[in-house]
Amino acid sequence: MYFNKMLQNNNSVLVNSRKMDNQVHRSWSAELIKQNAKLLILFGEFESEIKHRHLGVIRRGTLSYEYYWFDRWFNIFRFHEPDGSLRNFYCNINKPPVFENNTLNYIDLDIDIIVWNDYRCEILDVDEFEENTKKYNYSEQLVKKTKNSLAQLLKLIDNRQFPFNEKFNFDTFNNKN
After folding, report:
1. Residues sharing a CB contact under 8 Å with residue 172, sequence separation 6 or more, in sequence order
2. pLDDT tens digits for 60-110?
3. Would residue 110 count as lying in a domain?
């Protein structure tokens, strides 16, 4: 996806987005900027222009702050234009990640949400989730957890809770998040 040219130290993290069969779907490097027992925040920068079917053109130099909770079934990417202005959020419903040896792995459960800078939301890939529910024989419990996580994420967005609050400040990062 991208490589942050600043990654020259041991803060480099390899991120692997996997499908239910554990195959790597996407992989990229990012820089670890914050970590506590519940949350990992990474930073990356797109090294080249990307054309995404839902996001349009993501310009070279676009910044990405990535939020991975160890006890939640979703992650959130906060994209900023190269000039620093908020571009959008991209949210994935997934199993909680595992972080070991500077590698973060998570199982992507297909459903995504785009949150534009005016906070309009688009829910994506519900059809893909339904197809994979059959393909991988998702349990009723997994389907229920996925739907509950989607509802929880939509509530965070609606209430502008971290990291959707407009006043983005890392001083708000603490053990409560």
Report:
1. 162, 165
2. 899 999 999 999 999 999 999 998 899 999 999 999 999 999 999 999 999
3. yes
Domain total in the chain? 1
**Residue 175 covered by a domain:** no
Q: Which domain holds residue 121?
A: 12-169
Q: Can you give the CATH number for the domain in which 106 is found?
A: 2.40.380.10
Residues in the chain: 177
In a domain, 146, yes or no: yes
In a domain, 121, yes or no: yes
> By C-alpha distance, which of 90, 95, 76, 79 is closest to 18?
95
Where in 19-176 does DSSP place strands (E)? Answer: 24-35, 39-45, 50-52, 56-58, 63-69, 74-80, 86-94, 98-100, 103-116, 121-124
- Report how far residue 155's alpha carbon sits from residue 56's, in angstroms, rounded to the nearest whole number: 26
Type of residue found at 72: R
Q: How many CA atoms lie within 13 A of 66 on its CB side?
A: 24
